[in-house]
Amino acid sequence: MAISFTLNGKAVNFEGDPETPILWVLRDHLDVTSPKYGCGAGLCGACTVHLEGAAIRSCSIPISAAAGKAVTSLEGLAEKMGKAIQDAWIEFDVPQCGYCQTGQMMSAADLLAKKKQPSSDEIKNAMSGNICRCGTYSRIEKAVKRAAD
Ligand code: FES
What's the helix, strand, coil split of the chain in %, to 5? Predict the structure, then answer.
């Protein structure tokens, strides 16, 4: 069964099991490697991408849910608000090991799309589902605030 959707603005097709998680369709079939596998259970946020503009855990949502919809990964975010986010991440030297950071930026983009000038508490709350084992949380907060400027 073919599932059609847009990925970073381009029409794509996936032929295979419709229950395949979006994460594995992106990584294994479409060579999009920014979303990472962390827990595989919707708990860590490393796999975060956008579906119709909203942050989702791509490890836990089947590709059938993307049929006819728009999927955006970090690779496609730069053309939108992602440039400000990526610049802020660089300015504050946010990543340590870097593994979780694409998911962090996708969640930040979702937050800033909903709230132009989030408070510290709003940032902490919105980002609380994205786990960083290196503990870069204070730099993430500063970068989100800079991207909002
Ligand atoms: Fe998807 Fe952890 S890998 S939430």
Answer: 45, 15, 40
